[in-house]
Amino acid sequence: TPEEAEASPPADMLFALGDVTGVFFGRDFVSVTAAPGVAWSSLKPDVLAILLDHFAANMPLFRQGSAGFAVPGAEEEITTDDPADAEIVAQIRELIDTRVRPAVANDGGDIVYRGFDKGKVYLRMQGACAGCPSSSATLKSGIEQLLKYYVPEVTEVRAV
């Protein structure tokens, strides 16, 4: 939201364009939502200029201590998977990174691997996916079926 964007200089500048209704920062992407009726082709040059200038200047994504929310640190991404499952976990992570995350990012969200235990894969939905009513269907019908197909050891996918 524009109010939350005050914690992030690039998000603040994007909302100031007036034609942006949403900004989501993923681990390795930025999703910008244009207002209804706004042609992306007219908005894109300004969005790219803001983002390129910001990141080329090596500026922080968020203002220190100004956010009214927590920004996950790298330590939150550490999982304690059983080393015996290393090959299975590598397959799961590869599928999530190459097939699932790009599709989810197109809808303004992200999905983060949180663990694998006794056939169950634990994922965290972020951004637009976290509050989307169809995220459960996406998780069960899409992601779970994909992982079960390519990784037979997977029996279930759960959101955390």
Describe the protein.
The mean pLDDT is 81. Helix 2 packs antiparallel against helix 3 and helix 4 packs across helix 6. The strands form 2 sheets. Strands 3-4-5 form a 3-stranded mixed beta sheet. Strand 3 and strand 4 form a beta hairpin. The longest helix has 20 residues. With 160 residues, the chain is α+β, with helices and mostly antiparallel strands.
Order of helices and strands: HHEEHHEEHHE
Stretches where pLDDT is under 50 for at least 5 consecutive residues are none
What Rg is obtained from the alpha carbons, in whole angstroms? 18 Å
Classify the helix fraction into a percent range. 40-55%
Q: How many strands appear in the DSSP assignment?
A: 5
Strand content: 15-25%
Shape: elongated
Structural class: alpha+beta
Quaternary arrangement of the chains shown? single chain
Number of helical stretches of at least 4 residues: 6
Average pLDDT score: 81
What's the main sheet like? 3 strands, mixed
Q: How are the strands of the biggest sheet laid out side by side?
A: 3-4-5
- The end-to-end span amounts to 24 Å
